[in-house]
């Protein structure tokens, strides 16, 4: 069993990532409108975003410096699955 809530939460998050990776495939990638700058981008639809909106790589890189990983996943989806940040 998990000793701490944090360990359990991290394990659940990792399990959700693995499940999402198994359920999604390359055909799910669509052309979306960036919810931050309004530019055109590609990615997978996130349930917490309006239909047709996602996050572009430029904005993802900028927003990631201001939010926690947990908040990024909550608002925009999972990195490299729902959005693809610039390197």
Main β-sheet, spatial strand arrangement:
2-1-3
As a percent range, the share of helical residues equals: 40-55%
State the total count of DSSP E strands: 3
**Element pattern in H and E:** HEEEHH
Global shape: globular
Overall average residue pLDDT = 82
Low-confidence stretches: none
Distance between the termini: 37 Å
Structural class: alpha+beta
Tell me the Rg in angstroms. Answer: 14 Å
Determine the number of helices (DSSP H or I, runs of at least 4 residues): 3
Major sheet: size, sense and barrel closure?
3 strands, mixed
Percent of residues in beta strands: 5-15%
Description:
This protein is an alpha+beta fold. Helices cover 40% and strands 13% of the residues. It contains 3 helices and 3 strands, in the order αβββαα. The chain has a 3-stranded mixed beta sheet with strand order 2-1-3, with no helix packed on it. It starts with a helix and ends in an 11-residue tail after the last helix.
What is the topological layout?
Layout: H1 5-23, E1 30-34, E2 40-43, E3 53-54, H2 57-64, H3 69-76
Parallel strand pairs: 1-3
Antiparallel strand pairs: 1-2
């Amino acid at each position: 069993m998990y000793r701490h809530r944090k360990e359990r939460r991290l394990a659940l998050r990792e399990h959700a990532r693995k499940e999402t990776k198994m359920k999604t495939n390359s055909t799910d990638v669509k052309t979306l409108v960036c919810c931050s700058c309004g530019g055109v981008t590609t990615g997978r639809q996130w349930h917490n975003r309006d239909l047709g909106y996602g996050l572009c790589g430029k904005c993802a890189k900028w927003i990631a410096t201001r939010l926690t990983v947990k908040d990024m996943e909550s608002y925009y989806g999972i990195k490299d699955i729902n959005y693809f940040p610039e390197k």
